[in-house]
Amino acid sequence: MSGTNVWTRSREKLRRFPEILAQCPGEASAYGKCVTATTIGNQELQKDLCVKEFQALKTCFLNAAKKAAK
Question: What is the value of pTM for the model shown?
């Protein structure tokens, strides 16, 4: 089993990330705003505070990745 294939696949996924992110501007913005709003000052981000926004972004990413793979 060659480790080169793992790195090649990883680099390919990272290379496509900007184009996939560009297809989810609303979801990315909503998640970013939620994270920003919950970490004002010295507050730390806590688990599940922005889970709804994260799930929407994740779903959008997965759908965009499926379209890009075709």
Answer: 0.77
